[in-house]
Design a protein that fits this description.
It contains 8 helices and 12 strands. The protein is α+β, with helices and mostly antiparallel strands.
């Protein structure tokens, strides 16, 4: 089997679609003349987590590198190794995988509330060069696969998910302390039962300069924690420039999402980021995302009261009708978009 037999048909060479596009059609936005060195991305030692150092980077960046996080290096190695093996299966085999608890998708990271990828409507005109597995953590421990490959991967994801939940609780607790959020509210603002993992493979692309793994966006989550392989491609928007978030061994990337920006009344930033793809190399990343409880009402001075399901439903409507997420501006008290 060739590598490309593991790709969805649309992304294979010599498919009916000509991947060599006119560069004037939907081109990538121009980048800075020279991308600055991204080593300036703040680093926080998990062992020294405190409201002062966390609040500073949340205000100024909305993203930081987490060191000494306690996730075993061997667990990370095995996760990436087995993810490569699973994604290397024939595309048709992956489509035939059970849809619970690991849902296979491709072409878009935006899943509907019913769990389907947005491959229709305006979104279908600009597919992302990726495939992935969506893994709700509240279901992963309740399931066992007969297939040894799937069961081994499920077990690794369950272990990894428990580490991510541990980290997210500590990070959010530190942010909540700085923001003086009462315990009665903070308990619902971060609900571990909402946590899920996304395992992504970004495809090789012959016109990588014209396509995206994921285009510029903010996460809808409370916070996200990313582990990337050594290929690179993640970029963050800071001070009107795009910075490469270079892979550094034994670190994780933490970024704030829209829910944290709203909860903080815009004191903290939901950071804009994107993923570039490569011409000759695939990339694996594993993301953890966590949200407020469904019934948690987010109330602040800048935005109308809303719950995360309200936000998710509006995003889904915007993706279907205008082809992109509008996000928090829809909920502004003054001059909503």
């Amino acid at each position: 089997m060739t590598t490309f037999e593991s790709y969805p048909t649309f992304f294979r060479p010599n498919h009916g679609v000509d991947h060599i596009e006119d560069p004037t059609h939907n081109p990538k936005p121009p980048g800075p003349k020279s991308e600055p060195d991204s080593d300036s991305l703040p680093v926080i030692d998990f062992r020294e987590l405190n409201p002062e150092n966390v609040s500073k980077v949340c205000r100024e960046w909305g993203m930081f590198r987490l060191a000494h996080h306690g996730v075993p290096a061997e667990l990370l190695r095995r996760l990436h190794e087995e993810a490569n093996g699973l994604f290397g299966l024939r595309f048709e085999s992956k489509q035939g995988l059970p849809t619970s608890p690991m849902l296979y998708f491709w072409g878009s990271p935006a899943l509907t509330m019913s769990g389907n990828a947005n491959q229709t409507g305006p979104c279908a005109q600009n597919l992302n060069w990726l495939e992935g597995l969506n893994v709700p953590l509240d279901k992963i421990s309740q399931f066992r696969y007969e297939d040894p490959l799937l069961e081994s991967f499920r077990s690794l994801l369950e272990e990894y998910g428990s580490h991510q939940t541990r980290l997210a609780k500590a990070i959010f607790s530190t942010m909540a302390e700085h923001l003086n959020i009462p315990l009665s509210k903070s308990a619902s603002y971060m609900s571990p039962s909402t946590g899920f993992l996304r395992v992504y493979r970004y495809f090789r692309c012959p016109v990588a300069e014209q396509k995206w793994g994921i285009g510029a966006h903010t996460d809808s989550s409370l916070l996200s924690i990313i582990h990337q392989d050594q290929v690179g491609g993640l970029q963050v928007h800071k001070d009107s420039e795009w910075l490469d978030v270079k892979p550094i061994q034994d670190t994780l990337i933490v970024n704030l999402g829209d829910m944290m920006q709203a909860i903080s009344d815009d004191n903290f930033a939901s950071v804009t980021h994107r993923v570039k793809i490569k011409r000759d190399t695939e990339r694996i990343s594993i993301g953890y995302f966590v949200f407020p409880a469904d019934g948690a009402m987010i109330e602040c001075s800048k935005y109308k009261p809303f719950t995360y399901p309200n936000f998710q439903a509006q995003n889904e409507l915007d993706l279907k009708t205008v082809g992109k997420k509008i996000g928090l501006p829809r909920f502004l008290k003054e001059k909503p978009v």
